[in-house]
């Protein structure tokens, strides 16, 4: 017995839509689990129902760690190539002139921030947190890139 082809359009009946959502969500999570086990992959899925209720599946310890790992590697590609291009264009006066100039901008600001921290509102604190987080991610991605380059060079030397 074959199943018929399903038309891809919104299911009008609310009860049928909920049943279909539950079954398909379970099937999706089952396939994600199979992918993780068979291919030793780290898989994370986040699904929100029509009512806004979140459902998640993660093959590792937490979905947040998986998302952070994804963001780190996707940002690393862009950040590393950007910093390499900028470093080549600026010459070789400093080891990393763009980071040096960014640190010079942040340093006085962060020193004055210690005294003005109580005056900042939630939005300003969130902006500060995001800027520091972005800077931290750039540092981590550059460090990862340098370590990977070193490992590759050592592996090339062994062969």
Automatic annotation (TrEMBL):
It comes from the Eukaryota. PANTHER family: SERUM RESPONSE FACTOR HOMOLOG (PTHR48019). This is MADS-box protein EJ2-like isoform X4. Residues 118-145 form a coiled coil. Keywords: Coiled coil, DNA-binding, Nucleus, Transcription, Transcription regulation. GO terms for cellular component: nucleus. The keyword DNA-binding applies. InterPro entries: MADS-box/MEF2_TF, MEF2-like_N, TF_Kbox, TF_MADSbox, TF_MADSbox_sf. Residues 1-61 form the MADS-box domain. It comes from Phoenix dactylifera (Date palm). Its main location: nucleus. One of its GO terms (molecular function) is protein dimerization activity. It is found in: Nucleus. It holds the Pfam family K-box. GO terms for biological process: positive regulation of transcription by RNA polymerase II.
């Amino acid at each position: 017995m074959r199943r018929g082809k399903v038309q891809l359009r919104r299911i009008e009946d609310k009860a049928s839509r909920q049943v279909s959502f539950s079954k398909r969500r379970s099937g999706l999570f089952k396939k994600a689990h199979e992918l993780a086990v068979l291919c030793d992959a780290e898989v994370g899925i986040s699904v929100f129902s029509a009512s806004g209720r979140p459902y998640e599946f993660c093959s590792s310890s937490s979905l947040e760690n998986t998302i952070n790992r994804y963001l780190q590697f996707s940002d690393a590609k862009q950040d590393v190539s950007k910093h390499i291009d900028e470093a080549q264009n600026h010459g070789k006066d400093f080891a990393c002139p763009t980071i040096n100039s960014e640190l010079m901008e942040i340093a006085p600001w962060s020193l004055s921030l210690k005294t003005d921290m109580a005056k900042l509102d939630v939005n300003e604190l969130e902006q500060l947190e995001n800027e520091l987080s972005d800077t931290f991610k750039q540092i981590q991605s550059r460090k990862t890139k340098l370590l990977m380059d070193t490992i590759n060079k050592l592996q090339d030397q062994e062969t």
